[in-house]
């Protein structure tokens, strides 16, 4: 099993910055969390206290979601897809640099500039390598905090 953990660390009016960590089940034990990259999402809202979704402009609710790799109709390539996100569909992990590049999805990269991620294509490639090099049928989950 591969687990991803997204910890949101900067909730701004127009974007949300997070840190993505990885770990895997090896010989019956989960390895320690390891920092992988930074993330960028649309602005965060507090769903638990009456926050309302704005289509394409708000980050997904906190929770634990299965991740599958499917062909993205929008990007025409295989990308991770979060399954079962309440009130959302088509939430993927993909490359991009600003909150304008996401409609609720999670962008991966390095937060080297305020409100942006850089090195996104290379970071996505590295994440896809981790996800692809698992045993067939081995599940992937993401915990969004």
From TrEMBL:
InterPro entries: DUF5675. It comes from Prevotella lacticifex. Pfam families: DUF5675. Residues 6-132 form the DUF5675 domain. This is DUF5675 domain-containing protein.
């Amino acid at each position: 099993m591969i687990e991803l953990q997204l910890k949101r660390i900067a909730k701004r009016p127009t974007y949300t910055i997070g840190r993505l960590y990885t770990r895997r089940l090896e010989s019956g034990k989960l390895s320690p969390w390891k920092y992988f990259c930074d993330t960028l999402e649309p602005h965060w809202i507090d769903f638990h206290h009456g926050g309302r979704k704005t289509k394409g402009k708000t980050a997904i609710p906190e929770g634990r979601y299965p991740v599958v790799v499917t062909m993205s109709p929008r990007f025409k390539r295989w990308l991770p897809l979060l399954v079962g996100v309440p009130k959302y569909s088509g939430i993927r992990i993909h490359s991009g640099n600003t909150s304008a590049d996401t409609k609720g999805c999670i962008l991966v990269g390095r937060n080297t500039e305020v409100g942006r991620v850089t090195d996104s294509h290379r970071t996505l490639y590295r994440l896809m390598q981790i996800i692809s090099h698992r045993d067939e049928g081995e599940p992937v989950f993401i915990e969004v905090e």
